[in-house]
Amino acid sequence: MNARPKKSFGQHFLHEKRYIERIVSAVSPKPDDFVVEIGPGEGALTLPLLAAAGKLTAIELDTDLIPDLTARAASVGELSIIHSDVLKVDFTALAHRHGVERLRIAGNLPYYISSPILFHCVEHAAAIQDMHFMLQKEVVDRMAAEPGSKVYGRLSVMLQLACRVEPLFTVPPGAFRPPPKVDSAVVRLIPLSPEQRHDADPARVHAVVKAAFAQRRKTLSNALRQLMDSDAIKTADVDPKARAETLAPLDFVRLAKVLAGT
């Protein structure tokens, strides 16, 4: 199949075999796994993942791609396609509906909505075993960035509080049709176990992180002044004169707990 990529959907179809094989090897699906692919496109990953797992659920918004993909998958395994915007798919309900404890998610994500998709998946982390995504390399760098890095920010903190982030390998523009203008990268996300997760109110953590990084050059006492004062920040064992980019993810958790008590 050689579908015409649609700019409105941010479509860049992966076609180079060696990178397809590396991604499938990284996912390493087993017959008992419940695999969900986001944005199967032309099926470059879909068919080998389906062959390994025996069954697969794909989420596709582009109706023009579904008939051909369904026909090609018929001789490979059991493919179920959800025609929907992925941001409207309840992954927790999907797992419950199929009687599985946790899903395995994979996909070549549209770059223009990659961050919303990542945050959406994190909301359902308890129902997800792992995630393997192809993203803009710049986004993967931000996801895995450590405190003090120039690209460390809100995405880094929120993802690292929910998952172990493992960058795997880079994929060049020529592996896609049409080639994007930037390098891509594959990343593995493994949701933290209940014992590893923080116990602060997620809404307050999000509020603190969002405010702290809204203006990176401001000190925390200025950035968080609408939420808490300097004394409250000190109570969390955090320096009010520090900037958000220097704080570890768990520092934001302590600040959220102080916020809950103010």
Automatic annotation (TrEMBL):
Binding-site positions, S-adenosyl-L-methionine: 12, 14, 39, 60, 85, 108
Location in the cell: Cytoplasm
Molecular function terms, GO-annotated: 16S rRNA (adenine(1518)-N(6)/adenine(1519)-N(6))-dimethyltransferase activity
Top-level EC class: transferase
Keywords: Cytoplasm, Methyltransferase, RNA-binding, rRNA processing, S-adenosyl-L-methionine, Transferase
Superkingdom of this protein's organism: Bacteria
Sequence ranges assigned to domain Ribosomal RNA adenine methylase transferase N-terminal in this UniProt record: 19-193
InterPro entries: KsgA/Erm, rRNA_Ade_diMease-like_C, rRNA_Ade_Mease_Trfase_CS, rRNA_Ade_methylase_Trfase_N, rRNA_adenine_dimethylase, SAM-dependent_MTases_sf
SUPFAM superfamilies cross-referenced by the UniProt entry: S-adenosyl-L-methionine-dependent methyltransferases
Gene3D superfamilies in the record: Ribosomal RNA adenine dimethylase-like, domain 2, Vaccinia Virus protein VP39
Enzyme Commission number(s): 2.1.1.182
Primary residence: cytoplasm
Record field: catalytic activity: adenosine(1518)/adenosine(1519) in 16S rRNA + 4 S-adenosyl-L-methionine = N(6)-dimethyladenosine(1518)/N(6)-dimethyladenosine(1519) in 16S rRNA + 4 S-adenosyl-L-homocysteine + 4 H(+)
Family stated for the protein in its record: Belongs to the class I-like SAM-binding methyltransferase superfamily. rRNA adenine N(6)-methyltransferase family. RsmA subfamily.
Biological role stated in the UniProt entry: Specifically dimethylates two adjacent adenosines (A1518 and A1519) in the loop of a conserved hairpin near the 3'-end of 16S rRNA in the 30S particle. May play a critical role in biogenesis of 30S subunits.
Listed name of the protein: Ribosomal RNA small subunit methyltransferase A
Record organism: Dyella koreensis
